[in-house]
Amino acid sequence: MGATVSNELRVLSQQQITRYHEQGYLLIEGAVSEEWLARLQSASDEFIEESRSLSTSNKKLDLEPDHSAETPRLRRLTNPVDHHPAFAEFTLAGPAADIALDLLGSPARYHHSKLNYKWSDGGEVVDWHQDIQYWPHSDFTPLTIGVYLNDVDDEMGPMGIVPGSHTGELFNLYANDNETWTGSIRADDLPRIDLASANYLKGPAGSITVHNCGCVHGSMPNNSGRVRPLLLQTYSAFDSFPLLGVGANGATGRTSGMLIGQGEPARSLTVHGRTMPAAPDWSRGGYTTIFDVQQDRK
Ligand SMILES: O=C(O)CCC(=O)C(=O)O
Questions:
Q1: pLDDT digits (tens, 9 = 90+) for 60-104
Q2: CB under 6 Å to ligand 1: residues?
Q3: Would strands 274-277 and 199-201 be described as parallel, antiparallel, or unpaired?
Q4: CATH 2.60.120.620 fits 14-267, yes or no
């Protein structure tokens, strides 16, 4: 019943891990090899090509309003891990998985992925927000690992993170009417955040960003003539569970919930400081009835 988590480090130093826990984020410049970068860029290009045939967004490809076949402006590829083997390998068993395992221990739990393009000449702003309200979990271990597929400088809307905000206030991402989900921190609340301290994470193609689910973060429009593709992958500790019935937890893709690294699924779950040995994961099948399990297996 008692699962073991391995904390053996693969790529990060102890200093980087301490820094992540203190500040809530990391930047690792040029961390991805040329070979991996070329594979990811080529996979990404396939979806840009595919988007040319679309005039409206669908579940997989989200388009900017001025997208066209001649000038594609793909806003997001949703769940790239489910749509291309290069993304699946990179995220579930490759360099991104290694970083997640260093920060979360092995095994860890994959949650979802996305590829945000932020196109050139005005590609869209991402307002200040925290992630955990979008997909609440049973703890605050979820973190997102980003990979810049192109070189990113200040003009291109790099991701800005407020240091130390991961352990601070959890903001209301509804509009002032408390009904409309805007996904953005309210203007009235922004003065309570030290936005001037935000660190804008930029670097050469292959640079990796990591941010905890509680970090206040956002990004400016891309005013350069260059696109800023950012591959984002979210993981949590192996015994952290997405809370169903709230946010995007029910719409995360077919690989969501997969364990990465080595080890058995969690049996033990702690909520409100009380630990229970919870049932196995039957979300993909295997459960019959209480009668069946109680009578046949005692
Ligand atoms: O693309 C970015 O700059 C940030 C994206 C982000 O924060 C998100 O998609 O939650």
A1: 999 999 999 999 999 999 999 999 999 999 999 999 999 999 999
A2: 116, 118, 126, 131, 159, 217, 219, 230
A3: unpaired
A4: yes
